[in-house]
Write a structure and sequence with these properties.
Chain B: InterPro entries: EF-4, EFG_III/V, EFG_V-like, EFTu-like_2, G_TR_CS, LepA_C_sf, LepA_CTD, LepA_IV. The structure holds two protein chains of two kinds. Chain A contains 17 helices and 15 strands. By secondary structure, chain A is of the alpha/beta class. In chain A, β2, α3 and β3 form a beta-alpha-beta unit. The termini of chain A are far apart. The longest helix of chain B has 21 residues. The chains are: A alpha/beta, B alpha+beta.
Chain lengths: ~450, ~675
């Protein structure tokens, strides 16, 4: 395994120092920055896994052997190409997701980070997260990732019950998970997140809360609670369909969620998003960018991005999707410098819809200033104040609209998708009334 | 109904066969008869020119009244009525003896599938016996009680009936009902015990049943196997010997009974007629006693079983006539036709079709409305007994309220829509026509009558303005093996029925008579009866007028808001169970919302049933990161689009599906 190159080591070392400094400063603001169009987050997709998990429908592959050198070179090439196309000057966070990116070599991670820093600026204190699977991440390997520039770990712990882990098709045990967590905390103090799933088939509220309690005793400052979504095409979906597994009970899942978030609040965690909890300001700035509708580039097979291709003379934000299959993607990157399969221009209304749907997932919701950055003419008040249905949601205490902006209440956050079915059509209506020619925005 | 093409096909084939057979018997002067090949080729051509243009016309004056017999076959479902008819047609050379002769007279697909005859078919049989040429007119009757009016009109053209009983199953409910129709019409009844070839056949037992229930000596029964053709000649002999010729007069002015009519898209209405007096021929000016409209006869003829034109039809004969009627409502069953300027006393017993079961019919998708409309029009052009009123429901859109003679009639209509017109429809739970005797002078003035019929629950007058409410009742006959008697009686009691009679028709079969409120049997009574008796009990009914009933109007409320389309008229004793069932069905089909929904059934201000749909506690996608946004937005927009189509009751969104689940006829459980 090749060690990170000298330049990369340089970036990683600088990052180490910066990390300590940043930690002391706490969460950063985003106002004193370069214009939004010259900034972006970067998502890197590592498409390979050792084994298929029974619930996962992500774009992943179980290879016999990975040509890692080729993969690395393609990731580097695509990062360079897209950064150039976007005209982005500053990358504020990097997220290695997958798949199982902890199966990649630390040198690959280092190479990508180095390329990003070269092509644009990757500030030393940028958040660089790696998703790690408990079994594929022994201590030495975690340390190597740290040396490569990773400064935040997200551990796919999922459950502390071995039977449940088996049901999910995970390769690790509860013990493995706790051990990995402990090691990760030693290496990345204050920068470790764990995922815990809820609403599994046959799962009961009491025992699950027990798992959460155990986890609170040993976790770091960030936690994600994910309700299981049965996705078509997964083994779990099929089993439930055939009746070999009981369907998850939505009532119980709702109860776990409510009890869980209450317990976390007690423990001093801030629920800053539907499924994400942090204390001591340890929010994931990368994910925050998604919810704030900031620009992001996606590289790797099947990765999604959203940015204005300014470097190519564009003025409209595009939703971009890279080619799904790793082999085809690699061929395209080698031929064209990138593997973008689809480019969908986003109209102004569509962008506002995303601002609304994503922003309301967060605890701060959509502030008036935030909304104004995207739509200076039509205020949140203009859009929502007069709607009878919105008023009913406000009166019911599910939604709040005040001098700060529009946001969900504690209860409203749990039923956001229902609220959006009223809010989105209202936004469309207001937009059409405002715009003389409704052709625009398509 | 048959499509024009298939109708034409039969027409061509049967005509040829008849011509061949007739020529053999010397009924016609020798003429060039088309070969079978030519006939096959002419199938489609056949439609192009009217059969009236053909030269081969039968001279019906050859058949004297004394040598004419008019009869029907009546039987319980599946006892072999149509198979016997096929054999009679074969034996008299009316149709060829081939393996394809399966229920020739049952023209509808549903008739063949279900072994029932819905539409009466008729055939004239020419039969040579003891050197005499007989004209035997087989007037096939609809095989179900829903069509008892049609049956009674067909029977009024007959002097006798063949009462077919299955040698294995014995007398069934419909056998009894049919027998009494014939008995009341004072017809000669020839009992025919069919299926004696079956392994479990017990004709001796059936003879005894016939003796006991109908008071017919057992030696009068003819034992046959229609399937194998055993003893069919004896049946024809009996028709000649035991059924009297019609009592009619050729010299009198024309008096013809319309006992059926069909619609042909090329020739208009084809009316099936029985001549009680006089003669009719092409060119005659005739008048309908009911509509008083005048028509000129274009064509007359006999049915073989397809139309075969003749020069004339004479008193006592049965056939068809075409006289430029554009619509089957112009040739109503039971109407009398007479000659212009020679009016006669109309035949007794005529009444307009009276629907007894109503149901709403809606296209599943409103874009299908026009297609469905044309399908309904095409079907009703041949069935004047279906009443059609445009209706619209806030939940189900534009549709119709259809009136049917009975449940089977409704089912047949629906099946024909689906099978012949490929139309899928929402058919709402059937209701019956209730009545109210008004006490409020204001209302009487408004309705211009004291007794009103309530078809739509929205018109249900308040109790304070009414002396009494009435509901239609029927007299039901059930025949069952006695081991099921207890269960059958419990079922009848649960349906508010009152026992009128009970007798053993043999050692282990019981005949029960009950007076039922019609609405208690319109939904699933027949299926319940069949399932509790392992299929052995049979059921039939006849109209028994109206009786006083404690009816109430039941409202369905969602969080206190009335749901107009779910208002139901129900008997007081059934209000709780019906209300509960509706609430439960709504609970299962209403999606959760952001608040709790109370579903209530209420009579006036009194709540009689309640269910609750809990509020959503969690409805938010767990993971929403960079790669999920596109998919999530698409899903949300699709859902928001769907939400726009929901009907709002108060602030509750009700999908069309929920209404359909509550309103539509429930499938068998």
């Amino acid at each position: 395994m090749a060690l990170p190159g000298a330049r990369a080591r340089g970036w990683a070392a600088a990052a180490k120092i910066a990390q300590r400094r940043r930690h002391a400063e706490g969460a950063r603001g985003s106002s004193s920055r370069a214009p939004p169009s010259s900034r972006a987050a970067l998502y890197v997709h590592w498409p390979y896994c050792e084994k298929r998990c029974s619930y996962c429908n992500f774009n992943k592959y179980i290879p016999r052997g990975v040509e890692e050198a080729a993969m690395r070179s393609c990731l580097v090439t695509e990062a360079q190409t897209l950064l150039r196309l976007s005209g982005v000057r500053r990358v504020e966070s990097v997220f290695f997701g997958g798949g199982t990116p902890s199966l990649a070599s630390p040198s690959t991670v280092a190479a990508v980070l180095e390329a990003v820093d070269q092509a644009a600026h990757l500030p030393a204190d940028s958040e660089v997260t790696l998703e790690a699977n408990p079994t594929s991440a022994p201590r030495a390997r975690l340390a190597a990732f740290g040396a490569a520039g990773v400064n935040r770990l997200s551990i796919g712990l999922q459950s502390l019950d071995d039977t449940e882990l088996q049901l999910l098709g995970r390769t690790h045990s509860a013990r493995d998970a706790l051990q990995t967590l402990a090691e990760a905390r030693r290496l990345f103090p204050g920068r470790v997140s764990v995922d815990l799933m809820l609403g599994l088939p046959a799962q009961q509220v009491g025992p699950w809360l027990g798992q959460l309690r155990t986890l609170l005793g040993c976790c770091d400052d960030h936690l994600s609670l994910y309700q299981l979504t049965l996705e078509r095409g997964t083994a779990l979906f099929t089993q439930v369909q055939w009746g070999t597994l009981p369907a998850p009970d939505p009532e119980l899942a709702a109860e776990m969620y409510q009890e869980g978030r209450a317990m976390l609040r007690e423990a001093g965690f801030r629920q800053y998003e539907v499924s994400n909890f942090a204390r001591n300001g340890a929010l994931s700035t990368h994910n925050w960018t998604y919810w704030q509708c900031g620009q992001y580039l996606g590289i790797g097979p099947g990765a999604h991005g959203r940015f204005v291709p300014q470097g190519a003379g564009g003025h409209t934000r595009e939703a971009r999707i890279q080619t799904l299959e790793p082999d085809n993607w690699m061929k395209e990157v080698m031929l064209f410098g990138h593997g973008t399969r689809r480019r969908i221009p986003l109209g102004q209304l569509e962008l506002l819809e995303e601002v609304l749907a994503m922003g309301l997932r967060t605890d701060v919701g959509i502030t008036h200033q935030h909304w104004q950055q995207f739509e200076p003419q039509l205020s949140l008040w203009d859009v929502f104040r007069s709607s009878r249905e919105v008023k009913a949601q406000l009166a019911q205490g599910l939604l709040l609209l005040d001098h700060r902006g529009l946001r969900c209440s504690w209860e409203g956050l749990a039923v956001l998708d229902s609220l959006l079915l009223t809010l989105l059509p209202r936004l469309q209506e207001a937009w059409q009334q405002r715009t003389p020619s409704p052709v625009q925005g398509g | 109904m048959w499509t024009p093409v298939s109708r034409g096909r039969w027409h061509g084939r049967a005509l040829t066969v008849w011509a061949t057979a007739a020529a053999h018997r010397g009924l016609l002067e020798p003429r060039r008869t088309p070969s079978r090949g030519a006939a096959a080729k002419s199938r489609t051509l056949d439609r192009l020119y009217s059969s009236a243009d053909r030269k081969e016309k039968i001279d019906m004056s050859r058949f004297s009244v004394e040598n004419t017999r008019n009869f029907s076959i009546i039987a319980h479902v599946d006892h072999g009525k149509s198979t016997l008819a096929d054999r009679l047609l074969e034996l008299t050379g009316t149709i060829d003896k081939t393996k394809n002769n399966k229920q020739v007279l049952d023209k509808l697909q549903v008739e063949r599938e279900r072994g029932i005859t819905v539409k009466a078919q008729t055939a004239s049989l020419f039969y040579n016996c003891d050197g005499k040429q007989y004209l035997l007119n087989l007037i096939d009757t609809p095989g179900h009680v829903d069509f008892s009016y049609e049956v009674s009109r067909s029977l009024s053209a007959c002097q006798g009936v063949l009462l077919v009983v299955d040698a294995n199953e014995g007398i069934q409910a419909q056998t009894v009902a049919n027998f009494f129709l014939a008995f009341e019409a004072q017809l000669s009844v020839i009992p025919v015990i069919n299926k004696i070839d079956l392994k479990n056949a017990d004709p001796a037992r059936v003879e005894k049943q016939i003796e006991k229930v109908f008071d017919i000596p057992s030696d009068e029964c003819i034992k046959i196997s229609a399937k194998l053709g055993t003893n069919i000649e004896r049946v024809l002999q009996a028709v000649i010997e035991r059924i009297p010729p019609p009592k009619v007069h050729r010299k009198n002015p024309l008096k013809a009974l319309v006992f059926d009519s069909t619609f042909d898209q090329y020739r208009g209405v084809i009316a099936n007629v029985a001549l009680f007096d006089g003669v009719v021929s092409k060119g005659d000016k005739i008048i309908s006693a009911y509509t008083k409209k005048t028509y000129e006869v274009n064509e007359v003829g006999v049915l073989n079983p397809n139309e075969q034109p003749t020069h004339k039809l004479y008193a006592g004969q049965v056939g068809y006539l075409i006289a430029g009627m554009k619509d089957v409502t112009e040739a109503q069953i039971g109407d009398t036709l007479y000659l212009h300027k020679q009016p006669v006393e109309p035949l007794p017993g005529f009444k307009s079709a009276k629907p007894m079961v109503f149901a709403g019919m809606y296209p599943i998708d409103q874009s299908e409305y026009n297609n469905l409309k044309s399908a309904v029009e095409k079907l009703t052009i041949n069935d004047s007994s279906v009443t059609v009123h445009r209706d619209s429901s806030l939940a189900l859109g534009a549709g119709w309220r259809l009136g049917f003679l009975g449940l089977l009639h409704m089912e047949v209509f629906n099946q024909r829509l689906e099978q012949e017109y490929n139309a899928s429809v929402i058919l709402t739970t059937p209701t019956v026509p209730y009545k109210a005797v008004l006490s409020s002078a204001k209302l009487i003035k408004e309705y211009r009558e004291k007794e009103i019929t309530i078809i739509n629950p929205a018109q249900f007058p308040d109790k304070s303005k009414v002396t009494e409410y009435l509901e239609p009742v029927i007299l039901g006959t059930i025949i069952t093996p006695d081991e099921y008697t207890g269960k059958v009686m419990m079922l009848c009691q649960a349906r508010r029925a009152v026992q009128k009679n009970m007798m053993y028709i043999d050692q282990n079969r019981v005949m029960l008579k009950y007076l039922f409120p019609l609405n208690e049997i319109v939904v699933d009574f027949y299926d319940s009866l069949k399932s509790l008796s392992s299929g052995y009990a049979s059921f039939d009914y006849e109209d028994a007028g109206y009786q006083t009933a404690e009816l109430v109007k039941m409202d369905i409320l969602l969080n206190g808001n009335h749901v107009e389309e779910l208002v139901t008229i129900v008997h007081k004793d059934k209000a709780h169970s019906v209300g509960k069932a509706i609430c439960e069905r709504l609970k299962d089909s209403l999606p959760r919302q952001l608040f709790e929904i109370a579903i209530q059934a209420a009579i006036g201000s009194k709540i009689i049933a309640r269910e609750t749909v809990k509020a959503y506690r969690k409805n938010v996608l767990a993971k929403c990161y960079g790669g999920d946004i596109t998919r999530k937005m698409k899903l949300l927009k699709r859902q928001a689009e769907g939400k726009k189509k929901l009907r709002k009751i108060g602030n509750i969104e009700v999908p069309k599906d929920a209404f359909i689940k509550v309103l539509r006829t429930q499938p068998d459980k």
